[in-house]
């Protein structure tokens, strides 16, 4: 007999992640997870079942590059083989921008789709890819409950000062404020840290979500209090292809002196900068870490330097630091970057246990460290499944 299943879709800037969760009276179980990653650089299709690690699908004909739409088509074709095993009872979607109105997940209907589409200019690398599968499913299976889970929701209760730009009130009232992103990841990590290290989880924590999109979040007693991303997910740290923080005067210079238009500037800020722009080689940290080119080293050094400075800023917002957590593609896998970041944060009392870091342990601080340091794999899909089950009354 087929199991009742919640499917989760998570379109990141460089990947499509997906998961299937069975829904039973005893709770949700993640029975499948996977991703089509490195869409624009070197696509790979990885799948894992249950507790098994994800593995590359070897018979998959890997194309040179894939758009998000093409990747979703590949995923739909792959999932066909589970048609008789999975009885779909709900679909949960990661939606990067939820605007000012959404402090929690929402059931998808036409009005919501329209509202979220209007936020596309604030998340051009994500929002269209988050909404397209919702529309396709809604037209084919209109009775299937779909739930939008927002990256911004976890940050909506940040203190007013943390959300505010120094802009006139009339512009602030139009919603021009810091929203913050990667919230589903931070919500998952806050809960996971509470299970592993309850003492730190009630304290002052900085989580470094370092993926193709990268940000830091200051969390106090499980609640987001400040972060590096803002009105859009281009602010904060340099990312795979995004600038991160930039003097707004640069935009005026590009407009007035280099005669660039808004779309050209958008491309520059979102797609041509960050690790790719500085290195001129790749947006992929794996490629840069393996390269001997000085520009690759510069891009990596700038990434680490900016993380170090932003950790200082968030530690100031928190009034100190009890724990530092690394997560997402780079945070989970790049021991070199973790070591370099911990070095930058030594003044806060961070001391790394080098062998623990190099061998992939979960707790990586040295005994004498004043700050607990953890590597916790994120699972945005699990967070989305929990929200989806809850809001649809499935579990
Ligand atoms: N072993 C690794 N070493 C260094 N970087 C890695 C490794 N594995 C993945 N990454 C980095 O993680 C990034 C993807 O992170 P991820 O969180 O999956 O991205 P997305 O932002 O698309 O959700 C890749 O661009 C790559 O640079
Ligand atoms: C908001 C964001 O940058 O997401 P991702 O890291 O998945 O691209
Ligand atoms: Mg991501």
From TrEMBL:
Segments forming a coiled coil: none
Binding site for substrate: 94
PROSITE patterns in alphabetical order: ACETATE_KINASE_1, ACETATE_KINASE_2
Keyword ATP-binding: yes
Broad EC category: transferase
Assembly, per entry: Homodimer.
Keywords annotated in UniProt: ATP-binding, Cytoplasm, Kinase, Magnesium, Metal-binding, Nucleotide-binding, Transferase
Domain of life from the UniProt record: Bacteria
Positions annotated to bind Mg(2+): 10, 380
GO molecular function, one term: kinase activity
HAMAP family documented for this protein: Acetate_kinase (MF_00020)
Entry's family note: Belongs to the acetokinase family.
Function: Catalyzes the formation of acetyl phosphate from acetate and ATP. Can also catalyze the reverse reaction.
Enzyme Commission numbers on file: 2.7.2.1
Location of this chain's protein in the cell: Cytoplasm
Organism from which the protein derives: Silvimonas amylolytica
Site, as annotated: Transition state stabilizer: 182, 242
Details of cofactor binding: Mg(2+). Can also accept Mn(2+).
Protein name as annotated: Acetate kinase
Pathway field: Metabolic intermediate biosynthesis; acetyl-CoA biosynthesis; acetyl-CoA from acetate: step 1/2
Active site: 151
Reactions the enzyme catalyzes: acetate + ATP = acetyl phosphate + ADP
Name of one Pfam family that matches: Acetate_kinase
Names of the cofactor(s): Mg(2+); Mn(2+)
Residues that coordinate or bind ATP: 17, 209-213, 284-286, 329-333
């Amino acid at each position: 007999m087929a199991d009742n299943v919640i499917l989760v879709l998570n379109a990141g800037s460089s990947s499509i992640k997906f998961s299937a969760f069975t829904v039973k009276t005893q709770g949700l179980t993640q029975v499948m997870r996977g991703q089509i990653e490195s869409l624009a650089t070197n696509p790979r299709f990885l799948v894992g079942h249950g507790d098994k690690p994800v593995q590359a699908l070897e018979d998959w004909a890997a194309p040179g590059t894939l758009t998000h739409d093409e990747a979703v088509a590949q995923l739909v074709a792959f999932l066909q083989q589970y048609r008789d095993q999975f009885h779909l009872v709900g679909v949960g979607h990661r939606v990067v921008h939820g605007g000012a109105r959404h402090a929690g997940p929402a059931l998808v209907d036409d009005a919501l789709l329209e509202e979220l589409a209007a936020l596309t200019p604030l998340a051009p690398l994500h929002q269209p890819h988050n909404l397209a599968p919702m529309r396709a499913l809604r037209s084919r299976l209109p009775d299937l409950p779909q739930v939008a889970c927002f990256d911004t929701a976890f940050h909506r209760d940040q203190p007013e000062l943390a959300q505010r730009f120094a802009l006139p009130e009339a512009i602030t009232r139009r919603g021009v404020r810091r929203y913050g992103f990667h919230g589903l990841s931070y919500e998952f990590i806050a809960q996971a840290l509470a299970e592993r290290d309850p003492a730190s989880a009630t304290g002052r924590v900085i989580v470094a979500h370092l993926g193709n999109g990268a940000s830091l979040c200051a969390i106090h007693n499980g609640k987001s209090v400040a972060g590096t991303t803002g009105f859009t997910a281009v602010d904060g740290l340099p990312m795979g292809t995004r600038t991160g923080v930039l003097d707004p005067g640069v935009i005026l210079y590009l407009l007035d002196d280099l005669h660039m238009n808004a779309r050209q500037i958008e491309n520059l800020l979102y797609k041509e900068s960050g690790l790719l722009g500085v290195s001129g080689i790749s947006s992929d940290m794996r490629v840069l870490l393996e390269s001997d080119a000085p520009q690759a080293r510069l891009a990596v050094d700038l990434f680490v330097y900016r993380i170090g400075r932003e950790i200082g800023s968030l530690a100031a917002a928190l009034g100190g630091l009890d724990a530092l957590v690394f997560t997402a593609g780079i945070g989970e896998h790049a021991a070199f970057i973790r070591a370099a970041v911990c070095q930058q944060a030594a003044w806060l009392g961070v001391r790394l246990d080098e062998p623990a870091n190099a061998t992939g342990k979960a707790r990586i601080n040295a005994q004498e460290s004043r700050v607990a340091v953890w590597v916790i794999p994120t699972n945005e899909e699990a967070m989305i499944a929990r929200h989806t089950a809850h809001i649809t009354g499935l579990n």
